[in-house]
Write a structure and sequence with these properties.
With 495 residues, this protein is of the alpha/beta class. The chain is 47% helix and 13% strand. It has 18 helices and eleven strands. The protein has a seven-stranded mixed sheet, sandwiched between helices. Strands 8-9-11-10 form a four-stranded antiparallel sheet. β4, α10 and β5 form a beta-alpha-beta unit. α16 crosses α17. It is globular. The N and C termini lie far apart (82 Å). The relative contact order is 0.12. The structure holds pyridoxal-5'-phosphate. Pyridoxal-5'-phosphate binds next to α7.
């Protein structure tokens, strides 16, 4: 018996009983995660030293019982994350996720799907074409549009910009210039660097009072660049900035790009999902005029990581840009067969479509619409509560599920106010009740909440603000008594 078991292990195999038993453990872990998450700390603070001690070891020559390994995976690894699906995770952009998509991801991995060609994965390929077409319709793009599922917004931006480079510049970068606002996500600049553009070719224009790309300035700069012999080729607009949820004037920018013959790329990685609801659709007027669009279902469409989507107004351009057929793949070419590896950078590619398909089919678009509306409502509730309390200042009002604000300690310098707000964010994280991050807007350190988790309740918001206020008050008192070190330094400097 023991020899046959060892033999099967050496083929990396389990018996059906073993698989069932482990499967039960797996389901228990997942159900426990989904049902008890809100009672747990949003994040745990563990040191590198601690984890080194627990996890660093030589390569394991011999195996261990998988039930024990699953337990360790849970205790030492999965517990030590900031739970982006926690209802009080307000930092960065949350990943609220959903259980149905988790199941699809498990199956996708279990069946080891390679969605690179029709031959290897006709079913998943068809599903990918279907969900991309659903996203296309929801965004109001024409039938000629197409797209690809990628790892996230960064890859969606990179892929779209590679198409823009190919179509607009014929892949020749000399004197080419691209425009965006200073609120544009860092992945755009990174993607451009990967594509070979130098920082001098990226014009990051100062955003206006509402953190939007100022079209008048844009017009002047483009014309000046043209006059001096440069080749303006693309404008990157934001459909919901990560910082404040600001939406650039998409419709006007689309007009401008059409008139100036510029590629119009819209980074909707965060905000594009809002087109599903009425309010979002009106804010995002002009989204349907993009030449290319980045859309991240692993953010506001509640999918587990990773799934991003790039949409092209002219879907054929993806294949024009990326298609180079290696000899040994020629076999996979069939009439009407779509080989998605020809539409992007990856050859072997997991199927990201199944989770989006299964969850959209299971819950229906209406449920998603309602879930997205909750994100708007939670940010607005936050704003209403804060605006009734004098110690808080709203910096940018609730827009697209994001609000920024700051605590105003009494009679303090600019620097002290900045430090105080950073401290509040740090203290809240250490406390574990909620997680929000600070961001810098025009030199002010401010608190920011992104409230797109549909499982966030009004109580969660109320209690989070209570705690923030308590932390702020305590800091304020300690500052007055000189108990907070950095502030005493400042006081000494000023006296
Ligand atoms: C999150 C985000 C990105 C990057 O997307 P990833 O999925 O993290 O690669 C790009 N742009 C915006 C506006 C985002 O919010």
């Amino acid at each position: 018996m023991s020899t046959s078991k060892e033999q099967s292990r050496s083929a990396l195999q389990l018996s059906s009983e073993e698989m069932r038993a482990l499967g039960n453990d797996l389901v228990e872990l997942l159900v426990e995660h989904f049902t008890t998450l809100r009672d747990k700390p949003v994040a745990r603070n563990v040191s590198r030293f601690d984890l080194e001690e627990r996890l660093r070891e030589p390569p394991p020559l011999h195996g261990t019982n998988p039930h024990i390994m699953l337990r360790q995976l849970h205790d030492d690894i999965l517990r030590n994350v900031a739970h982006s699906d926690h209802p009080r995770f307000f930092a960065f952009v949350p990943g609220p996720s959903n259980f149905i998509s988790v199941i699809a991801d498990v199956l996708t991995s279990g069946f080891n799907i390679d969605a690179c060609t029709w031959l290897t994965a006709s079913g998943p390929t068809e599903v990918e074409l279907v969900v991309i077409d659903w996203l296309r319709q929801l965004c109001g793009l024409p039938v000629s549009s197409g797209g690809l599922l990628v790892s996230g917004g960064s890859m969606a931006n990179l892929t779209a910009l590679a198409v823009a480079r190919h179509v607009m510049l014929k892949d020749c970068l000399t004197d080419a210039v691209i425009y965006c606002s200073d609120q544009t996500h860092s992945s755009v600049e990174r993607g451009l660097r990967v594509l070979g553009f130098s920082p001098a070719q990226i014009r990051k224009l100062p955003s206006d009072a509402d953190f939007r790309l100022p079209i008048d300035v844009l017009r002047e700069v483009v014309i000046a660049d043209r006059t001096s012999g440069k080749r303006p080729f693309c404008v990157v607009a934001n459909a919901g900035t990560t910082n404040t949820g600001a939406v650039d004037p998409l419709d006007m920018l689309a007009d401008f790009c059409a008139a100036q013959q510029l590629w119009f790329h819209v980074d909707g990685a965060y905000g594009a999902a809002a087109v599903l609801c009425e309010r979002g659709r009106s804010i995002l007027t002009g989204l349907d005029r993009a030449d290319s669009l980045a859309f991240d279902p692993h953010k506001w469409l509640f999918q587990p990581f990773e799934i991003g989507c790039v949409l092209l107004r002219d879907g054929a351009l993806l294949r024009d840009t990326f298609y180079h057929m290696p000899e040994y793949l020629k076999d996979s070419e069939r009439d009407e067969a779509v080989n998605l590896s020809e539409y992007g950078i990856q050859l072997t590619r997991g199927s990201r479509a199944l989770k989006l398909w299964l969850s959209l089919k299971t819950f229906g678009i209406e449920a998603f619409r309602e879930a997205i509306e909750r994100g708007f409502a939670s940010a607005e509730l936050t704003e209403r509560i804060l605006s009734t309390r004098p110690q808080w200042e709203i910096i940018t009002p609730a827009q697209m599920g994001i609000i920024t604000f700051r605590y105003l300690p009494k009679r303090r310098s600019v620097r002290e106010v900045n430090e105080c707000n950073q401290h509040i964010a740090d203290e809240m994280l250490a406390d574990g009740f909620a997680f929000l991050t600070a961001t810098t807007l025009r030199g002010q350190r401010v608190l920011r909440m992104c409230t797109i988790n549909p499982r966030t309740t009004a109580d969660d918001i109320h209690m989070t603000i209570e705690r923030l206020a308590r932390i702020g008050n305590e800091l304020d008192c300690n500052m007055s008594e000189g108990l907070v070190k950095p502030y005493r330094e400042v006081v000494v400097l000023r006296s």
